Amino acid sequence: MSIEYRGETFAGYNKPKRTANHAKKSHAVLAKEGTTIKLIRFGEQGAETAGKPKAGESDRMKNKRASFKARHGKNIKKGKTSAAYWADKTKWS
Q: Of the candidates 20, 44, 42, which has an alpha carbon nearest to the alpha carbon of residue 30?
């Protein structure tokens, strides 16, 4: 199921994709929560995030991940229509 929205193609609702050609944001998702559909761009292009947790991860990366979650926790709880939710799910969890 492919969805065309504002000139961009998405694999489906709530399926993030990389946007290498976007000037500022690294990812985009066509978020759907109930009847609300929203195009959300998130993630800084070229930023070095902690990525997925790995076994034997350094304390620095653990602290970096914890700081992100603490800083954006309120916005992450807003759900699928929040950029912080998708950044947490895609880049930090």
A: 42
According to DSSP, residue 35 is labeled T
- Provide the residue count of the chain: 93
- What kind and span of H or E run contains 86? helix 83-87
Cα dihedral 86/88/92/93 (nearest 10): -100
Indicate the pTM of the whole model.
Answer: 0.88
- CA dihedral (51, 52, 53, 55) in degrees, to 10, reads -110
87 close to 43: Cβ distance less than 8 angstroms: yes
59-83 pLDDT tens trace: 888 898 899 999 999 999 999 999 9
What are the b/e assignments for 66-88, b being 16+ CB within 10 Å?
Answer: eebeeebeeebeeebebbbbbbb
Residue with tokens 């065309």: 4
